[in-house]
Amino acid sequence: MPAQLPLPYPATVPATSRPSSSTFTTPPCPADATAIVPPSTGRSALERRARLTARLAKLAATGHLAPLARQISALGGCALPIRLTGHRTRLDTATGEILNHLDSGRLPAGELLVRCGNRRATRCPACSTVYRYDTYQLIAAGLRGGKTVPTSVAAHPRVFATLTAPGFGPVHNQPDTGRCHCGQVHPDDDPLLGTPLDPERYDYAGAVLWNAHAPALWARFITHLRREIAKAAGLTQRALRHHATLSYAKVAEYQKRGQVHFHAVIRLDGPTGPTSTPPAWATTQLLDHAVRAATTRTRIAHEGQQPQQPAGAPVGDRADRLVFRFGRQIDVRAIRGTDFTGDGPVTDRHVAAYIAKYATKGAETTTGTLDRRLRLLAELATHDITDHARRMIHTAWHLATNRRHAHLRLRQWAHMLGFRGHFSTRTRHYSTTLAHLRAERTAWRTSQPDTQTPAPAETQVGQTDGSPVDDRTGHPTDLAAGHRSRHPNIAGKRVDSDTTLVISHWQYAGTGLVPELEHLANLLATTRQHGTRTRRSEHSGDRAGRPAGHPVGHSTDRLTSAARAGAVT
């Protein structure tokens, strides 16, 4: 990528109205905007902000700030958008007519900007919020129906189970009664919570290896759970599939001590899934007993390369093999179908909200570790993390040098404290999928009245006014529109995707925004918050003499005025 990122304005725009070629400067490493080198020590943050605001003011003076603001606003506050370069063309297969054409070079930013979709709240709060809402709907649909799941599923036996890790040494905690082992009462925000009382005697190697084997331990637990259900029903495991189906959705959560434990919604359905009625013997009490029995029976041995047996050792000696199991603290609760708990068990609403809360949180939120991989162990010195997390990362890094643990890939997952499994899994029959929820949201947006569909002169096919196009939602330049069931053509009409051919070619250009656009995104966020406060005080503003019908909320005019005022300051 060149050192400068010129805006792709057409030749019809007078040269005096174009921004200078040095308006946008690309980051030093376009593949990762997070690696931008900070300004020199001689430049203060205030001077840098004033310089960026002055550049935006130049765009506002030439009338190019509004298209940029619309393109940035379409990201919904994404902190690390994906930058793409390329083109896309839609053709009508029946007539061969070109419905519309998108070239990233004609967009205001010169690139197509797509939301990152990261689930981690520490990486992108905006995208993680959408992910959390989708997870709530996915879990709730498996408990009370909806989203392709029948409402009769609410009457099926289901429990909310929590499986924890065993202890690897005493840690600072908050017992229900009495004080901690250290003799103190720790508040909720005490950084000592979860840290070992004696770090030198804490079994860090066992803690890391347990996290690495946690996914296999969960898979073995599901196998034992099916066996226990069949045993309680007086059936064989092969015959169980003809009477009942086991469905579940689970999420992995990190405790403060750095160990993974699982929260799971477990449900018993009929032989064909949620659409069929479970047998009469399938009760909540039977499922509760089966979960507890399967947890105590679940064991898994270390499957790595075994060390050389000493001379004279008996064949098949397993004394040196590591065996992992769940902790003794097992919590299994029945799930009610109402929104009021009282003194009864938990409800489907609380379970869905509880699991969705941890869908966007990783080890970095609870334990204070990293949210990305380490390339070199020396990089750890540049990060501000807790001593307990640092020691667990060091332990995972050094355990990887042992050939016995090579299959665990501990160095790749050292930032996750050894855990290398999926944080969230579900069975196929539990409920809908995240892809289905996203498709529903896209279809709903497409079905809404399109008030922003441009006139034919504004599209890239036959564009005559020379103004840059944007990629706002509902516009023919929207990347997601190429995968929708119906989309607008040049005339604004809906076209069936069965008769539409989409030809596209996209290349990855980088992650994150250049400094100028990042500053613009911050201004838009501030303007959006100001608009929210203005809408709340709309009635008081009317009483103060504001003209009726005055626009409230986000406005590019307000943003332009703010940019110009900031440049003067």
Automatic annotation (TrEMBL):
Bias (Pro residues) ranges: 1-11
Compositional bias per record (Polar residues), positions renumbered to this chain: 444-466
Region ranges (Disordered): 1-42, 443-492, 527-569
Skewed-composition ranges (Basic and acidic residues): 535-545
Pfam families: RepSA (PF20199)
Transmembrane segments: none
InterPro entries on file: RepSA
Compositionally skewed regions (Low complexity) per UniProt: 14-26
Name of protein: Replication initiation protein
Lineage of source species: Bacteria, Bacillati, Actinomycetota, Actinomycetes, Kitasatosporales
